[in-house]
Amino acid sequence: MFDGSSHTRNLRALCGACSSSLAACLCVAAVVAACDESFDPIAPSELAFSVFGYLDASADTQWIRVMPIRPLKVTSRDALGATVTLEHLGTGRIIELRDSLFRFSPYSDPDLGPGGAYVHNFWTLEDIEPWAAYRFSARLEGEEPAEAVVEIPRDYEVEVAINQVRARGETDELRITGVKHVPFLGMAANFYDGCELSVRRARYEERSGDDETLVIAITKQRLEPPDHCGPPWVANVALRIVGSEAAWPAGGYSPLALGESGLTSNVTNAVGFLGGVLTKVIPYENCEFQSDGAPVPDYCLLRYTPETAMVGGTVSDSHYACVGPLDSVVVQLTEMDREPARIRTVLSNRAGEFLIGALEPGISHFVWARAPPIPIDSVWVLEQFRWRYTEWFDLHAVHTDTLTVMPGQRLDYDIHLRRLLPCNVGTLLGTVTEARCGDGPIDSATVQLTELEVPPPLIPRTLTGRTDSNGEFLITGLRQYVHLLRVRGPDPDSYTERVDYLRFPPNRVVKKDVQLGRLTPCSEPPPGGQ
Amino acid sequence: MTTFRLDAFAVAAALCCVPVAAAAQQAAILGIVADSGTGRPLENVEITLNTGGRPAYRTLTDRNGFYQMLGISAGMYTLRIRRVGYLGHAQIITLAAGEQRSVSVRLEQTAVALEAVVVTAEQGAAVSDLGRQIVTPADVRLVPVPGGSGDLVAYVQTLPGVTTTGDRGGQLFVRGGTPAENLVLVDGIPIYQPFHILGFFSVFPEDLISSADFYPGGFGARYQGRTSSVLDVRLREGNPHGFRATASVSPFITEALAEGPVKGAMLLASVRRSLVEETSGTLLGATQPLTFESQLFKLTTTHRSNDRCSALALRTVDRGRIDPEEQESQVAWNNLLFGLRCVTLWRGGQLLEAHWGYSRSGSEAVARGSSRLHSSVFRMQHDLHATGRIGLIPVEAGYEIYGEGMTQDAAELIGGQTSGRDDVWGLSVYAEPTVRVGSRIEVRPGVALVASPRAAVEPRLRVRWEPFGPSNGALQGALGLYRQYVAGVSDMRDVSSVFVAWMEAPKSEPLEALQGMLGWQQPLGGGLRWSVDGYYKRLTGIPVTVWSAVAQFTTQLGRADGRTLGADVRVEYSSPHFYGFLGYGYSWTLYEASQREFTTWFGEPVQSYHPPHDRRHQINAILSLDLGDFTASARWQFGSGLPFTRPIGFDEAFDFARELSKVKTTLGTTRLLLDKPFTGRLPLVHRLDLSLTRAFDVSFGQIVVQAGAVNAYDRRNMFYYDLFTGRRLDQLPLAPYASVTLRRR
After folding, report:
1. Which of A221, B541, B648, B717 falls between 20 and 30 A from A150, CA-CA?
2. How close A376 comes to chain B (CA, Å)?
3. Contact A308, A359 (CB under 8 A)
4. What is the mean pLDDT of chain A?
5. What is the mean pLDDT of the segment spanning B407-429?
6. Average pLDDT, chain B
7. CB A258 to CB B549 under 8 A?
8. Got the DSSP string for A349-404?
9. Is the pLDDT of residue B316 over 80?
10. Among positive and negative, which fits the CA dihedral A512, A517, A523, A528?
11. pLDDT of residue A263
């Protein structure tokens, strides 16, 4: 479409004249017919980069995304060629950030297209000083730099108090004091209801308060423990308080509202946002948790206790094609060689992150992590009747390990759960049984799936599986096309055949139990000696 | 009915302050002119009263074949009635003072049928009467269409000021207005989406229409409820003398038509279905997933000589993908229409035309990654129009009562309260006298009083001045206020989105248009004539989709004000064996919208932009030529580029207030940043369509064979550009075709 030849340029100029001059157009209609002008839809802009990130004085590594604003959705793995620096405005010290090219796999997000997405994340291991200001600069040779001044908040002492209410439907409150601005607050409150499966997670409502105190409401309305269990109690809370020196814009930064420099972006010559924060992670174990029904004070005070240890990290899928955070994974730490052993259980959040605090240093802990089972759409077929019901299926293997933490340590511990089925493909499983004579499971029955309506140039595939001695089969790697299912007995002349149409969405497991009828008299032994 | 007539005429009289008494001194003559064979009323027939061998009074019949001449001095005259293609009629009549004479005449067709390229002198692309352009089947036949017959929409698209966004989608933009602002009537009943998804075709093929009035603007008080244009189509009646059938097939469409007498009535039945989806893979190299079909039945009965009633049933279905490669998207719409139309010449000399109708349209669309959008609208209406006189003043007056129900589920496209049901009912009366000032100036001041949904007055004024006498050039002008109480909302951001959600105008504030136009038309003799028209519109309350800095599927509905100005220039030549037309249209449309998002992005709440249908320059040329047994036709069209919103580029954004994500583990939300609305222009488009036709007489009737090509020099005209994928979608490539039509007489 883009042609740089002089001939094309001449034609293009003529076409341009055509659009503005009617007379010229009429005169050169024949030439116009030959115009196949190039088309460049991109508007010229002074915006050089898209910049997102935050400097965190409590982190050991700083990461800032610096990307060109590109004409197409697809990303490039080409070098950015930008010089990215942080200048300490108090001392004049300049830190140069290093580029690193990250690739996000299409298997974790099919919308990325077959090539995935490449992004440039700049990083440094240099310390970021609290109560300091830094000038961020990203510059391409010969062009105006994109700049932003980032203020890092001073270190703060934060106090967190909790007010627990016994009733199930009531609301607990957390009161946070000591930090001026909290642009972001993450919280995972885990509850204990007296039963073995003790983890529930509550959501918290939007925070409110004045400059002095931040009040967070923890709602328990959705906590529905079984009848024989007790009322839910906050067993532990992991708070991630992100403080900043200046308030971030009211209403937050919506990705849909970010815009031109000076209006909705704090980076000149760029779109995006660069903030400065100091993060405190406050694990809390309820001081009344062990009280076994003893009176609870109105507010129980939580404190940041660096003397204890904590373990945190990200739970992700181990499969090379499905790398991505896993939500709602139960992570459990059990003290070993101690009686009674204390058990800590948390759930990973949407980003796959988990944090377990108040661990006793020096004690070995048994780590157990299990991803939530996924629902299976099951169909049970008997003659012309079909019943649909839901079963649950483990998509990932359970993770087990042991670890020991040191006093004051925050141990980074990432968990990769082994995937039991391929990624982003459908799976069919079920059993094949004989129904007419009541023979039960059929061994070595053939289960064949043939793809239909496959758009060219893709070639339709046929996948075939056989049942085991329990009559069970599993066929995975199914693409999301309509499939023709044919189930035949080991001896096609001895059993009826069943045909059906199925569709397999990615990452879904469909369970289908199929019943065949024996064609030989029931008084005779089953074919194959079953 | 009688009560109404008196009321309406009283209103007109009060408005016009006419000295009624003068009428008593002078005579009047009126009547209906019809075809002797079919009884069909003949429009545009010239009526003259001659005395001393010279015409003393002259008029033309209207759409119902009705004429009236008022203010005639008592005496003896020769009444002459003439129309091209018919034997003339002449009779001597003597009129006494105060006499009103009714003379209805049936004209007999001449033995020689009109050839394809003959366009009568009173009509044509460069001729209009007070803003009205009459389109006949002969006009429609001039434009090459890849089917067995011509199509009204293909012809209308050649007129200056009429724009389409491409050859798919079936949307017409007239002089800066949007498709939802056009009023299309079929035998007096509104039809919502009459144009098929493939732009050459509509529900009005050449074989079905009797004639059509096209007002690109400045229409009279008779038409209400729309602000842009009017296309008033009258369908043929079936042949009363015997059974006739026509069937045709081409790679694009197949159709069949049957007509004949049924127990004293005249039946007309037509079925059409597209074939392009089945044939395009072979013919065009890629399948065009566009299908449509329509069925039409019309039954006409006559009572006495001049009373006729017709019943109409019409159904259409359109379905397809505007972008053939977008497998998950689809758009579909349908129409269902039932209508009853009666015309009678009342004893007092008034012509009454009444309609009862039900029209329903449903549309739905599925876009990639979104749920189904749905909209349906139905309308029940009754209207009556009377043409009569008050004293010496001819007056047209009438009323309309209607109910319109709209349901829509378009919340995913247009957030907010765009799911639900709206009901609108309305009542309006109008009167439009024709006042002659001397013999050369004709003034039609009209007014419509709308009682609901809000009480309002819509004044209209149309003027025609013939300074050098009749048929020697005319200056015409129009000024009027127009309101529209229902809105057809479409996604202006995406040219490929043809889904229209019908709803009550946002905040119950009607879309309002103040229109003014002025034009001159000049016959040059020998079949050559030219015309030039200028127009200006002020629009308020246009429903528009709210702009955002980031491309997103769901948007909000806002309102804009707008201005449109433009000019049409037409040159036309017609002779028995040659027809040529060249039209140039200049149009400039600017919307002005106040939106919060503009403040966020540009610091100013008000932004002006040219909407996506603002085609600045447009040229159309038609040639039709008789070459012995063959008829050759060509159409060349040229249009400057349409506006689009230019992107700045893609990036990944983070909403840190929602989640303090790490940039090393999270990709972010990919977004497309957009520049100010509609600052870019797509490339210009031009295309040549050709056809060659020959008819063979055979024992049972006639076989007509046509061969032709759409986009004859295979120009790559861009339809739209997918900003997300960088993929351009072009309009149809070179498409050769051949069609065969069998006509059984």
Report:
1. B648
2. 24
3. yes
4. 74
5. 75
6. 86
7. yes
8. -TTSEEEEEEEPTT-EEEEEEEPPPEEEEEEEEETTEEEEEEEEE--BPPEEEEEE
9. yes
10. negative
11. 45
Three-point CA angle A283, A288, A293, nearest 5°: 145
Chain B contact set for A50 (CB, 8 A): 651-653
Give me the mean pLDDT over the B679-688 stretch.
Answer: 92
- Residue A389, token pair as written in the block: 């019901």
Smallest Cβ–Cβ distance between A47 and the set B327, B648, B728 belongs to B648
Contact B617 A65 (CB under 8 A): no
Instruction: Please judge whether A260 and B602 are an interchain contact, meaning their C-beta atoms are less than 8 angstroms apart.
Output: yes
Residue A365 has pLDDT above 70, yes or no: yes
CB B270 within 8 A of CB B256: yes
pLDDT band at A30 (very low <50, low <70, confident <90, very high): very low
Size of interface A-B (CB pairs under 8 A): 186
Model pLDDT for residues B607-644, shown as the tens digit of each residue: 889 998 999 999 999 999 998 889 999 999 999 999 98
Q: Which of residues 429-458 of A touch B (CB under 8 A)?
A: 455
Please answer yes or no on whether A314 and B665 come within 8 Å at the CB atom.
yes
pLDDT digits (tens, 9 = 90+) for A78-123: 989 999 999 999 999 999 999 988 888 776 666 777 778 899 999 9
CB A517 within 8 A of CB A382: no
| pLDDT value, residue B415 | 61
Is the minimum CB–CB distance between B680 and chain A shorter than 8 Å?
yes
Contact of A1 with chain B, judged by CB distance below 8 Å, is answered with: yes
In this prediction, residue B205 carries a pLDDT of 93
Residues 6+ apart with CB under 8 A from A249: A264
All structural domains of chain A? 1-40 (no CATH), 309-376+386-417 (2.60.40.10), 426-529 (2.60.40.1120)
- Residue B214 · residue B159 · CB < 8 Å: yes
**Cis bond before residue A457 (omega within 30° of 0):** yes
% of chain B at pLDDT higher than 90 = 48
Question: How much is the pLDDT for A86?
Answer: 96
User: What are the structure tokens assigned to B288, written together?
Assistant: 């065009």
Tell how strand B229-235 and strand B244-249 pair up. unpaired
* pLDDT over 70 (residue B403): yes
Question: What one-character-per-residue DSSP string does A152-201 give?
Answer: PPPP---EEEEE---STTSEEEEEEES-SEEEEEEEEEEEE-SSSS--EE
Least CA distance to B676: which residue of chain A? A43
Amino acid at B387: T
Q: Does the domain spanning B133-744 belong to CATH 3.30.70.20?
A: no
Decide: B250 and B739 in contact? Cβ < 8 Å. Answer: yes
A414 touches chain B (CB under 8 A): no
Least-confidence region, from A102-106, A276-280, B247-251: A102-106
pTM: 0.73
Nearest to B663 among A64, A184, A260 (CB): A64
Out of A54, A69, A325, name the one closest to residue B649 (CB). A69
**B650: which chain A residues are within 8 Å (Cβ-Cβ)?**
69-73
What ranges do the domains of chain B cover?
Answer: 2-107, 133-744
The DSSP element (H or E) to which B694 belongs, if any, is strand B685-698
Lowest mean pLDDT among A335-339, B330-334, B388-392, B460-464: A335-339
Alpha carbon separation from A155 to A129, A131, A180, A411, B139 (Å, rounded): 10, 7, 11, 22, 84
B660, B720, B722, B729, best to mutate vs chain A, most A CBs in 10 Å = B660
Domain B2-107 classification at class level? mainly beta
Q: Which of B641, B646, B666 sits opposite A43 (nearest CB)?
A: B646
CB A514 within 8 A of CB A434: no
Enumerate the residues of chain A whose CB falls inside 8 A of the CB of residue B669.
Answer: 255
